[in-house]
Design a protein that fits this description.
By secondary structure, this protein is mainly α. 79% of the residues lie in helices and 0% in strands.
Length: 196
């Protein structure tokens, strides 16, 4: 849990710095929706007594929101009607939780919303593979795996939350690396360019 939190803090801190400097341009709505729903998952994990993984998730939510704010300063390119629908759908997790009186149902809803909210990042990773960082996405996937191992009271929804994020993180990184290779041609000395 602690290692995962430190890893995500360093990873997302560096991601935030690179975003503020304009080195990368993450998708603003992906970070906004993911930050919002991650904070909702954090609240659910706290109520389910998930242990250190919950605190790491809360930290991730706050850092995603900060990246969204930093990205918004660069403009709202690539924001579609679907992105706005995902934001509204994410906000629906709170009433679902209150009506069902179970954080598991809210987390299950959020799994669907987060998976859909990452689609714009996948689309952007394909079209503009140099505007985001596959290294950051990969480290995020590793952090998700470590958080999964650190769960104290695993429930099906919390376990699935981390498993899905592992696949989404490595998937987005893989698309960027594949597209960078396809656009630049494979050269051994350009490996760092592919992952940075």
């Amino acid at each position: 849990g602690f290692v995962s939190a430190v890893l995500i803090m360093v990873n997302m801190g560096w991601y935030l710095i690179r975003t503020v400097r304009g080195d990368i341009r993450p998708h603003v709505f992906t970070n906004l929706v993911n930050g919002l729903v991650t904070l909702i998952v954090f609240a659910g994990m706290l109520s389910l007594e998930s242990g250190p993984a919950a605190w790491r998730t809360g930290l991730m939510g706050v850092l995603c929101m900060l990246v969204a704010v930093a990205t918004a300063r660069q403009g709202f390119g690539y924001v579609s009607r679907t992105d706005i629908i995902m934001l509204v759908a994410a906000l629906m997790a709170i009433p679902i939780w209150k009506m069902s009186e179970s954080p598991d149902y809210a987390i299950a809803w959020i799994l669907f919303i987060e998976a859909a909210a990452v689609i714009p990042s996948f689309r952007k990773a394909y079209k503009l593979p140099y505007e985001d960082s596959p290294l950051t996405w990969s480290v995020s996937g590793i952090s998700q795996l470590l958080a999964l191992v650190a769960l104290e009271n695993p429930t099906w929804s919390v376990v699935m939350y981390f498993v899905i994020w592992v696949f989404m993180s490595f998937g987005c990184a893989g698309i960027m690396m594949w597209r960078r290779q396809a656009l630049a041609g494979w050269r051994l000395w350009r490996v760092w360019e592919m992952v940075a």
